[in-house]
């Protein structure tokens, strides 16, 4: 077994929450050391984006057939809208003297480790260079300028992670949550692009070093120690049908390396009181090398119309992470449950159109209150070919009864599973007061032994699925929330798993939100001046 693969197994085991002990984290939170959630670079030219808040005619249900959406003209206004609907502010909340921002892309603990860059070689849109997006100010900071005459006219989006932002609160397990957030961000970007009639394609062949070169992340003197960014993803933006924007990696990399770079990252935290060196170690051990280009083509899949077929831009902005659920409301209509489950199946719609790899994740579903569906523990197969293996791997006591639904949902055991869902999700009532909660079960050992960097990709896939559920819950008139805190091995024990072949990587729950009336809500960009 490669050394890096062994390191991944050790890290994953070390950062599991157990019923009698949680993964290593700070003993207390130093609020004075809380990282600034908005990264800025000093010494950069600022490019203001047009006023945010525009609504699109595209409905959320229209995203099921992206080929029918009329493309918006590529302009500074539409690029601003793309960035806003992916990563911008959606609202402000206030409780007493404390006020905090909410964003269109969800994040563990609302800490937002994901940073966003635009690489532009289209001189008609922006002067050629690399730009960093600041969501608070809704503007771009020009990190570098270069001569694009040798490059095709194109726009690329790059994502990176500041691991410190999550580690400040969650300690060693934070690396996992950063990867969830990358998955959320991929899906958020895909939904936003599709709403504009555009598409994004993940340049999955690139190495982390390639991306770092293009985004300037390898310029260590430009960043504070312990607050550096780790390269994650790079996307090609297509704004017109049949557009063929090529990525000449060598030319782009050489151009960026010889570019004039500007600015230095402002400090996010004053002290870094707690240090978690294992996060830097696992980041190094899961670095992605250059790989063969991949392009997975998911099947076409027809979905029923959403119950609340709002403007896609409106629905994206209203997404929230529920804090608690009302466990005494009527059951979830079966039609809404059907759409949510089928939206999790790979299909030729966003965000799968931005995903280059075949499905590696199935769903364990704790059904509490769904009209017309027996309560109990189920498995949703996103890849029906996994059925024989899972039957052999899971507990022999499961009945594997096919549910009377038009997709691969199997009842494992009937009965009230609310307490089990609550206990397994770190005793959180939100998992039991919901209509249903689920665990995302990933094909684990085989992927890690093949290529250790796939560890991150498995979490990305789970985060992408979480973002699907966030928006689908909103489109049904309800609310969802991701649950990163769960007792890993206890979940596996319920299923009868005895090794690392499959591992639970993320939990999610959907219900009727119980709003705290003491919280005040303010418009997202009230602080911006015209």
Topology of this protein?
Layout lengths: L2 H12 L26 E2 L2 E4 L27 H12 L1 E7 L2 E6 L10 E7 L8 E6 L4 E7 L9 E7 L1 H8 L3 H22 L3 E4 L5 H8 L14 E9 L10 H9 L2 E2 L2 E2 L11 H9 L26 H7 L15 H10 L17 E7 L8 E5 L6 H7 L7 E2 L6 E6 L3 H7 L11 E8 L1 H6 L3 H22 L3 E5 L4 H8 L6 E10 L8 E3 L8
Antiparallel strand pairs: 1-12, 2-7, 3-4, 3-20, 5-6, 5-8, 6-7, 7-11, 8-10, 9-10, 13-14, 13-17, 14-16, 15-16, 17-19, 18-19
Helix pairs in contact: 2-4, 3-4, 4-13, 5-6, 9-13
Question: So what's the CATH class of the largest domain?
Answer: Alpha Beta
Helix count, DSSP H or I runs of 4 or more residues: 14
Look at the structure and name the CATH superfamily of the largest domain: NADH Oxidase
Tell me about the biggest sheet? 8 strands, antiparallel
Average predicted confidence as pLDDT: 95
The percent range for helix content is 25-40%
Examine the coordinates and then state which fold CATH places here, giving the name of the CATH topology of the largest domain.
NADH Oxidase
What does this structure look like?
The protein is of the alpha+beta class. The protein has two domains: 44-285, 3-Layer(aba) Sandwich (NADH Oxidase), CATH 3.40.109; 321-511, NADH Oxidase. It is 28% helix and 21% strand. It contains 14 helices and 20 strands. The chain has helices at residues 3-14, 76-87, 163-170, 174-195, 208-215, 249-257, 277-285, 312-318, 334-343, 387-393, 418-424, 445-450, 454-475, 488-495, and strands at 41-42, 45-48, 89-95, 98-103, 114-120, 129-134, 139-145, 155-161, 199-202, 230-238, 260-261, 264-265, 361-367, 376-380, 401-402, 409-414, 436-443, 479-483, 502-511, 520-522. Helix 3 crosses helix 4 (174-195), helix 4 (174-195) packs across helix 13 and helix 9 (334-343) runs antiparallel to helix 13. The longest helix has 22 residues, at 174-195. The protein starts with a helix and ends in an 8-residue tail after the last strand. 48% of the residues are buried.
